User: What shape does this take?
Amino acid sequence: MKKRIFVNMIMLTVISLMLVAAALCFVFYNQFSGIVRSELRERADLFRNADTQTAMQDLIIFKPNDMRITLIHPDGLVAFDNAVGTEGLANHLDREEIAEAVETGWGESRRLSATMGMETYYYAVRLADGSLLRVAKTTSSIWGMFSGVLPAVICIIFVILVIGYLLAGNLTRRIVAPINNLDLSTESTPPYDELVPFIRTIEQQRERIAAQFSDLQSRTDTISAIMDNMTEGIILISRQGLILSVNKSAAALFETDTAMDGKNILELIRDLELLEQVRAALSGKRSELSIRRSGKSYRVFFSPVTDSGALILFLDITEKMMAEQMRREFSANVSHELKTPLTSIYGHAEMLYSGIVKESDHHAFFGKIKDEAARLIALIEDIILISKLDENTGGETFEEVSLAVIAAEAAEALSLKASEHRVTVSISGNAVMSAGRSMIYEMFYNLIDNAIKYNKPGGTVKVDVSHLEDTIEVAIADTGIGIPEDAQSRVFERFYRVDKSRSKKTGGTGLGLAIVKHIVLFHKGKLALKSSCDQGTVVTISF
Assistant: This one.
């Protein structure tokens, strides 16, 4: 723009100068030719009333040399010419100015010499005796005049061009500077009225772009927030195998950061099996497979994305696999636990039915059947209770209960067992909370029962209930044999036993601590265990 303005200004200056020069030459030429014609007319009019003889005498005496004077007889022959001799001059009656003077008394004309660039003016008058007097003067033609002043005009144009060049450059900068300094990022006042529609259009476009950018940024932030907060790992790659996006879960899975955009997928994934599925997805084939990484199980889905590349989804199925494993173990354990008492009952009943048992031993056999049936009933009741707790239905309404009172009731019910194991149970503190009474009793009963069964002779079980600012804390501590560290994370699983042989001796269904865990979770509490071999165990519950 700056260059165009500058060039246009220079061209305008040159054209203006040439037009002015031509116009001045034309004006001066007209002015000068008028003066010449007036001068010729005045000189000729001096002889208008004279005759041929008088005019001849005056011309010989004065001898004018500033113009050409020719005296012509009425028949057209030249009688006198102060510029050339009269011999050999042609008849002048055919000349335009002579013919006009013969007819009207005066006449004028001009003739141009294109080769010489000269122009001659003629003026003729008819004298008193019918002769003709013609005066003529030769001057430069308009072209001759223009060519004569052309060097001066060129010099003037050159000087003015230099000045115009400097002024045009300065003026161009002054015109363009406000436009260059115009801040289009904010609302501004146009430096020129002609720019108002342009600035208004730009402002409208800027507002539209800002709104579109804000909407796009909002969508991008939403997508990024969703992807970064997903537990599933997501990797998006282009058709060329370049990483377009990696969320936090996928980055953590491959132990890297999310700044992998633009890098090749080979820099992130080096597993040949995964890479093979990636290539298949880029070629348009869907597939999935299972992998284990960092101690977790993942189901990986490879999906082609139309005109973009491929999407890799890592779904953590660790909990599902563990739940499936626990379900299988639970089914096996339930089958085993149910089979043992049923087998015992069936064996004793068959022996009684066959009559091979002595009459004196019938009572012992009936007692064994009764004990196994009771154990079977207790096992089924525990399974039913866990099922209810799993479904988040405890089967009873909540009420205000005293934890210390319920703990004392459970300890009283286990007092005979405590005496047999020579274990002392003590309860301290108290707190009241809204809970299911029978479930809280079941919780204390199972915890105190375990603390007694796995204690040492002469040991103690301490139940401490404390009410903190916004938390009720229950701690059951014993001085028993403790739990190995590798088993502490599993003792609350169903049917899990640290020592199978010892468990059989101590009895129980193997569901006590699992029931405790479900009761605590049902009451939105937290369960913690701390134990050392031969140092005792502390179970802490926070409500």
About this structure: The first helix runs from residue 2 to 45. The longest strand covers residues 296-305. Residues 81 and 232 are 123 Å apart (CA to CA). The chain is about 50% helix and 20% strand.
